[in-house]
Amino acid sequence: MATPPAVRLVVRRRGRDGQPLEFSLAVPSDLACVGDAVELVAEQCRTGPLSVRRLAFNLRTALAEALTNAIAYGSRHDAAKSVHVQVEVTVRAVTIHVHDVGDGFNPAAVPDPTIPANVAKEDGRGLFVLRHLVDQVTFNPKGNVICLTLRAG
Amino acid sequence: MSFNLRKDSKGVVVVGVDGQLIVGNRQELKQKVLEALEGGAKKFVIDFSRTGYIDSSGLGVLVSLSKKIREQGGDLRLAGLNEDLQTLFELTKLDTLFSILKTPEEAVAAF
């Protein structure tokens, strides 16, 4: 199996204790990079305001969904294009922006995967899952930047 | 992160998911299960006792595998879900598609 391209992490601001308060990642648009990117973000947020459980499950799953959508639909799997992730950690919340270079989409037009006609489909659950795992989801008007907020706790 | 396959004395293939089942490794799981299916196995249990998280791509591969196994006259059951993973299956209503047992031992015994 080919080695996936590397995810680049830049810490932009640290707290007095040396823990990162603001950092960013450039993630190559290769689905094989999603797991590594998620682990990097989770590791940097380890001493932040989220419980171990929410860090282990909610943050990881939601970020994996956002990155997968950005790589598949934004960059259309073009590994030459990067998806940019910006993370801010405060005592109140972890805020994550995932920015792709695609044309964006209309999140309101995504079908509900839980209606009987869709339950047995193999795909189409990403945004639905993501919305249930974080406290707030917003998009920019174009639809190519998603912002996830996980409040402390 | 890896998938461990073992076949018990009743011929049930138990697949342990270590770490996560996500977009980056779902094809590996699919390939391993389909190889076992082609090799004649019909009864499968996916054991999530050691799984941290599953994304929607991981859920999708389970749906796909379940369909293929049923087409061959077999069945795929899930076991070992922690509270968060159980909630994920309930939210997506996938708990209505799969038999979900508490432990892999119970899932094997239920065949």
Task: Name the biggest interface.
Answer: A-B, 29 and 27 residues
Question: Hey, roughly how much beta strand do the residues of chain B contain?
Answer: 25-35%
What structural class is derived from the secondary structure elements of chain B?
alpha/beta
Largest sheet of chain B: 6 strands, mixed
* Principal-axes shape call of chain A: globular
Q: What's the count of strands of chain B?
A: 6
Helix percent band of chain A: 25-40%
What share of residues of chain B is helical? 25-40%
The span between the termini of chain A is 39 Å
User: Structurally, how many domains make up the residues of chain B?
Assistant: 1
Poorly predicted spans of chain B? none
CATH architecture of chain B: 2-Layer Sandwich
- What's the structural domain tally of chain A? 1
CATH topology of chain A: Heat Shock Protein 90
Secondary-structure element order of chain B, as H and E?
A: EEHEEHEHEH
**What do we call the CATH homologous superfamily of chain B?**
STAS domain
Specify the CATH homologous superfamily of chain A: Histidine kinase-like ATPase, C-terminal domain
CATH class of chain A: Alpha Beta
Indicate the low-confidence ranges of chain A by residue numbers.
Answer: none
What is the number of strand segments of chain A?
A: 6
Largest sheet of chain A: 6 strands, antiparallel
What is shown here, in short?
The complex is a heterodimer of chains A (153) and B (111). Chain A contains three helices and six strands; from the N terminus they run E-E-H-H-E-E-H-E-E.
Q: Can you lay out the helices and strands and say which pair or pack?
A:
The complex is a heterodimer of chains A (153) and B (111).
Chain A: E1 8-14, E2 20-28, H1 34-44, H2 52-74, E3 82-89, E4 93-99, H3 126-133, E5 136-139, E6 145-151
Antiparallel strand pairs in A: 1-2, 2-3, 3-4, 4-6, 5-6
Chain B: E1 2-7, E2 13-21, H1 26-38, E3 43-47, E4 51-54, H2 56-71, E5 75-79, H3 83-91, E6 99-101, H4 104-109
Parallel strand pairs in B: 2-3, 2-4, 3-5, 5-6
Antiparallel strand pairs in B: 1-2
Helix pairs in contact in B: 1-2
